[in-house]
Design brief:
The protein is an alpha+beta fold. Helices cover about 15% and strands about 30% of the residues.
């Protein structure tokens, strides 16, 4: 790839495409003003993504399975051949919990909920307690985090109006 001059009013996305206007500026701290780092506008990503699966490795599968049943408020949707389980949380979003002692406790995942206080009350009634509720994203979100039995961090986020 040849060299290219990027002016102050331009930015490059992860695919090397030039964007004009607001967004990331070389040398500027990223995201401090809440701006999007890349303005995609009417462009189509090189690889369209239609779904995402969060993968959560655990050491004690039976204990983790019960913990995530409480977190999600229901049994898993699928038992997979490799011994993992999968919850379908939204049309494009899934979570798989799988046994992997070597990587257990090294994952962080966030879920957006409609009413954080109500969700936390339901979890507490079933024995799961989150840490303090924080205001994040420059006052645009509330966040509370839990740690699963293996040390994976699960954050619950409510987007504020």
């Amino acid at each position: 790839m040849g060299s290219m001059l990027v002016e102050a009013s331009m930015s490059l996305d992860v695919l090397g495409r030039v964007h004009r206007g607001t967004g990331y500026q070389p040398g500027a701290p990223a995201g401090l003003g809440g701006e999007r780092l890349h303005e995609w506008r009417d462009e189509v990503a090189a690889m369209p993504i239609s779904a995402v699966t969060a993968m959560i490795p655990v050491a004690d599968f039976d204990l983790a399975f019960r913990w995530y049943e409480i977190l999600f408020g229901r049994p898993a949707d699928r038992n997979l051949v490799d011994g993992s389980v999968e919850w379908h949380l939204s049309r494009p979003g899934r979570v798989q919990v799988f046994p992997d002692r070597a990587r257990a406790g090294q994952t962080a995942v966030s879920f957006i909920v409609d009413d954080l206080d109500e969700y936390l009350r339901g979890l507490a009634e079933n024995g799961l307690t989150a840490g303090d509720t924080l205001i994040v994203s420059q006052g645009r979100e509330r966040l509370a985090s839990l740690t699963d039995p293996d040390g994976n961090i699960v954050s619950l986020i409510e987007v504020l109006p």
